[in-house]
């Protein structure tokens, strides 16, 4: 988890954010809020069952100087209220609580003004993997099921925008497939190759992209050398662009459950990042998701 200390430091340098949390009445959310509030990262608007919110506030010894609790009779209504606070500017950032991702994403997509012009909604995750030498980003493992080439370009644009805002550098992007050879029968390879060509033509900017690359070639310099892959990206990828949601979701969970990774996730393509947590996430992951959003955001 030592690489995530850099994420925490990025967030700690910023002040003045207000975060609206949709359906915040969950103990792990309040633990994460406490840690962020104690470090003066943000103030919070908590929408949910007021009795449960007050109970969890008391358990965490939280005061209302940085936290406001607002009653909502259901998780769905809490999502509506938090979304409205975000859209109206009463909150700079929106955070998913115990409402489902499908519900919150659906509400965001109903109002196109929540998206940046020309963007699509996508999911972006960041990982601290003990065996990898730096922070690793992954997109899109949660929103777009089978994106077209043009959708992949927009998903990539979302990820690169966040990366450059956080790290002030040009990321190395691996467009993943099962093999490095372009095969017309495997659309993941042709899309990856086209994205690589598009970068050379100026249609994809602010990154170095190579593809198709298999996962081992993207993350292991030794594997890339054995395969004789001549690439600045191979073995040193910053962002993994997956071909579709199934591979992305499985890769995300394999990092978490078998590689000992700590992760945080956002919805991007929106006017400001939306903090995306899983109901199964512990308070540490939820805290780092807050850090991730603050590090990636700008105050309007």
- The radius of gyration is 19 Å
Major β-sheet annotation: 11 strands, mixed
CATH topology term of the largest domain: Isopropylmalate Dehydrogenase
Structure summary, number of beta strands:
11
- The low-confidence parts are none
Characterize the structure shown.
It holds the Pfam family PTA_PTB. Keywords: Acyltransferase, Transferase. This is Phosphate acetyl/butaryl transferase domain-containing protein. Belongs to the phosphate acetyltransferase and butyryltransferase family. The chain folds into 2 domains: about 1-115 and about 270-300, 3-Layer(aba) Sandwich (Isopropylmalate Dehydrogenase); about 120-270, Isopropylmalate Dehydrogenase. The protein is about 40% helix and about 20% strand. The chain has helices at about 5-10, 25-40, 50-60, 75-90, 100-110, 150-165, 185-200, 215-220, 220-225, 245-260, 285-295; strands at about 15-20, 40-50, 65-70, 95, 120-130, 135-140, 170-175, 210-215, 240, 260-270, 275. It starts with a helix and ends with a helix.
Secondary-structure map with pairings?
Layout: H1 4-12, E1 17-22, H2 27-38, E2 42-48, H3 50-59, E3 67-71, H4 75-88, E4 93-96, H5 101-110, E5 122-128, E6 136-139, H6 149-167, E7 172-176, H7 187-200, E8 208-213, H8 215-219, H9 221-226, E9 239-241, H10 245-258, E10 262-268, E11 274-275, H11 283-296
Parallel strand pairs: 1-2, 1-4, 2-3, 4-11, 6-9, 7-8, 7-9
Antiparallel strand pairs: 5-6, 5-10, 10-11
């Amino acid at each position: 988890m030592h690489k995530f200390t850099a994420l925490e430091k990025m967030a700690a340098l910023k002040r003045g954010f207000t975060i609206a949390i949709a359906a915040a009445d969950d103990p792990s959310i309040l633990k994460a809020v406490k840690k962020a509030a104690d470090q003066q990262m943000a103030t919070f608007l908590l929408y949910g069952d007021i009795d449960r919110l007050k109970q969890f506030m008391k358990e965490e010894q939280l005061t209302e100087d940085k936290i406001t609790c607002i009653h909502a009779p259901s998780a769905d209504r809490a999502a509506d209220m938090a979304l409205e606070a975000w859209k109206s500017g009463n909150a700079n950032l929106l955070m998913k609580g115990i409402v489902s991702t499908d519900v919150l994403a659906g509400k965001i997509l109903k109002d196109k003004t929540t998206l940046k012009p020309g963007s699509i909604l996508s999911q972006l995750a960041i990982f601290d993997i003990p065996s990898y030498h730096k922070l690793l980003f992954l997109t899109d493992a949660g929103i777009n099921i089978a994106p077209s080439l043009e959708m992949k370009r927009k998903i990539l644009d979302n990820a690169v925008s966040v990366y450059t805002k956080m790290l002030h550098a040009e990321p190395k992007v691996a467009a993943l497939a099962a093999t490095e050879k372009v095969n017309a029968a495997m659309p993941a390879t042709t899309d990856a190759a086209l994205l690589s060509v598009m970068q050379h033509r100026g249609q994809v900017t602010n990154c170095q992209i190579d593809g198709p690359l298999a996962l081992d070639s993207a993350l292991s310099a030794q594997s890339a050398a054995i395969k004789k892959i001549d690439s600045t990206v191979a073995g040193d990828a910053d962002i993994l662009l997956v071909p579709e949601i199934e591979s992305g979701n499985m890769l995300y969970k394999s990092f978490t459950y078998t590689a000992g990774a700590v992760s945080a996730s956002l919805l991007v393509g929106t006017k400001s990042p939306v903090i995306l947590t899983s109901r199964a996430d512990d308070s540490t992951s939820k805290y780092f998701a807050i850090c991730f959003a603050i590090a990636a955001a700008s105050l309007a």
